[in-house]
Amino acid sequence: MKSISLTIVILALFGVTFAQDLSLKDLTTDHKVNPIGTDNKIPRFSWKITGSGNNIVQTAYSIKVASDEKFSSSKIVWQSGKVESEESILQSYKGPELKSGQRYFWQVKIWDNKGKESKWSTVAFWETGLLSHNEWKAKWIEMDGDTLRYSPSPHFRKEFMLTKSIASARVYITSHGFYELQLNGKKAGDQVLTPGWTSYSKRLQYQVYDVTNMLIKGNNAIGAVLGDGWYRGTLAWGNNWAIYGKHLGVLLQLKITYTDGTESTLVSDETWKVSNDGAIRMNDIYNGETFDATKILKGWSSIGYNDKDWQNVKIGIYNNSNIIASEGSAIRKIQEIKPVKIFRTPKGKLIVDMGQNMVGWIKLKVNGSKGTVVTLRHAEVLDKSGEFYTENLRAALCQLTYTLAGTGEEIYEPKFTFMGFRFVEVSGFPGELTVDNLTGVVVHSDMSVTGKFECSNPLINQLQHNIQWGQKGNFVDVPTDCPQRDERLGWTGDAQAFCRTAAYNMDVASFFTKWLKDVAADQKQGGEVPDVIPDILNRQGSKTAEPSAGWGDVSVIAPWTMYTVYGDKNFLENQYPSMRAWVEYIRKNAGDSYIWKGGSKYGDWLFYHPPVNNHTEPDGYTEHDFIATAFYAYSTSILAEAAKVLGKTDDARLYSELFGKIKKVFINEYVTNAGRVGTNSQTSYVLALKFNLLPDNLKSKAAEFLANDIKSRENRLSTGFLGTPYLCHVLSDNGYTGTAYDLLLQEKYPSWLYPVKMGATTIWERWDGEKTDSTFQDAGMNSFNHYAYGAIGDWMYRVSAGIETMGAGYKHIVIQPHPTEKLTYSNASFESSYGTIVSGWERKDEKIIIKVSIPANTYATIVLPTISQDKVTEGGKPLSGNIFIRDIIVAGNKLTMQACSGEYIFEILN
């Protein structure tokens, strides 16, 4: 309430009335646009406000919900009435209990601080799924005997008659393994790799498809083809497959509403038929797909298909209590890219260069004789000699094998696998291969792009490109470490390091809502958080795990980060038991010593090691118990803040006091009177400063030691996965922004720009995945698409361009750009829950020009780098005459002011 009151006080100062258009846009329900198949019984509504002029503030809103889009009086479900509130995000539905399988339409209108009333918004909707497990009438159907590894894909089908005209139809479906749903010969929907990856034994998502236009009055056919997927396929290393089960199966329910108001339901049951004598002979996430077009079951999901040789299905018996509606972002084919080059290697291999390390698959167009076999192998890089390099894929084959049917032009793309690759080796292709024959299909969770960053240095712009493509490739339903080798797991440490950057680049609210619930689901009874989520490295059903500091802390850091970015308390409310359980697990293990001994398995993962022939340069090693205790303190402090937000006053006090005790012991154990910290590594200083673990009188000295260490290494870092995300922030927070820029702009190893200079198009796992002599690091662990070190993107947005939030959700925005002589300009935009925030600076003609845009219904604290108000103008006029700016304060080398929504152009004289 304090921040809301502050908003009202500040905006009351801007009591100026101007004519302005007032409208609403971008309506969402629980962070999604017109979602179908939700199980939230209290949905929340958000909208963005637009209008001309400055100082647009909502003072009240009204929401109405109806069961038809015309909002006829008899169909009105709920009306909020006029609610005096400036809140325009995540406002809760407060009407009657929702019904299953019902589409609800909603509109909103608002009143502003000028007394103006908007028109009703455009109509948005949400549609409920099956709100009770008892509503599942379908049976699990399987293929008898289909329990072998790398088996052909089973196809399930059924024909049925509809004798009435159809008003609407929905399919509710989930599966063990991947599925593709078809009706009357066509694929339903545009999602791929469904039902996604969750902790299947506890949480199995179903999808809902509007198939109204796919059915006809008369004869119809429905079918589903399955793939091994994450359920039965290979996962991790060794002979690790069928972790969740060996039986592929599908559960399907088709609900049809007729124009006369009656309904009927078709379900998966004993009447269905199944065959695995189709074209998909093998499919596996790691190893690819084998497709024999001579065995295509032509028309198998259409009426009139002869299925007399198909067998009856087997009924699987399962407890459906684990079935949930889809919560995350759907996986889709997002874009297509064409090859940039086709060439022969020195050894004569035919290679296609896609120009971008991407994730997805190749769509092949080919014309040749029946039985011709075309093989596509995938790789991220070429070796020093220019040859196709796959050693870093380890045991993953990453191969597509296609046997031609010989029926003319054939187009093939896989259904049940994906690869991480830039280069494709093609063998067996009939005729001359051209760029027209291959298309790269980019696949990832469908998250709208929310952040843009650009500066005057093209290498930094390529770094930003690499960060975003690393996120695309590794956000395929789960935040994985890498998308190419025999791993592709939801490593918690990587997600912890990158989640704030991820939330700038793209809208990840739904993505993390879903994944964090799996974190809680797979958390052990004692509070341990496994290293990967979903947890497939521990035996299914195991009661314990051996966690690691900085990895398990994702259970606390990520929910708090999502709350900070989106202002959504549900992240904290949903995850609070998990957050608390993690801290209590550490507390139990640390005991009264408050030092978490043995709590870090991985340390500051992949920190800098000097070359073996360099015996003078120190490495970046940070002592493991130091790291564990630092993260113990940090998670405890965040938990205390979360408890405060949720009104859990006792917990807030308890964990605040616990943090104080940990900090006191930490200082005694790891900090000298001179300000030296831990092992004197960069990460030692970074964690101690970032986590507020130093006495105030030693912070400046510790920051100086950190900056001096960087300078002694010729402006190079030595941090690993845990220190790197905070490194530049700590420097900027402690007066060393110039040093942070030196690190960002460093082009020599180890640095962010070294891989860029080496031709990277995504972020690498190691600082030197490819060495300066063009040889590679250890093939056993050398991914060239690994987003963790891309966490620097967060600093580029928040510090260089200067977009920050005070409190949660960007209601109160902080604009504080940090110009440097090392760049000519730096610009960023961020699509917040309220609208587009813009901040950027440019050095031009002895001036610094700063452009700012603050969305309606928010306000900003703007901090400019100047020692005098007289040196600053806005729109060519002195600040003192601007009615939209108040509370101008100059202190030190900063000018701080409060500004209402609108656009501003500041000019600062050097």
The proportion of residues in beta strands is 25-35%
Contiguous low-pLDDT stretches (5 residues minimum) are 1-19
How far apart the termini lie comes to 40 Å
Largest sheet: 10 strands, mixed
Category by helix and strand content = alpha+beta
What is the number of strand segments? 46
Average pLDDT: 96
Cα shape: globular
The helix tally amounts to 15
Helix content: 10-25%
What is Rg? 29 Å
Quick synopsis:
The protein has 910 residues and is an alpha+beta fold.
Report on this model:
The chain is α+β, with helices and mostly antiparallel strands and 910 residues long. Helix content is 22%, strand content 30%. Strands 20, 21, 25, 26, 27, 28, 31, 32, 33 and 34 form a ten-stranded mixed beta sheet that branches. A hairpin with a 2-residue loop joins β13 and β14. α5 runs parallel beside α7. The longest helix is centred in the last third of the chain and has 22 residues. The radius of gyration is 29 Å and the shape is globular.
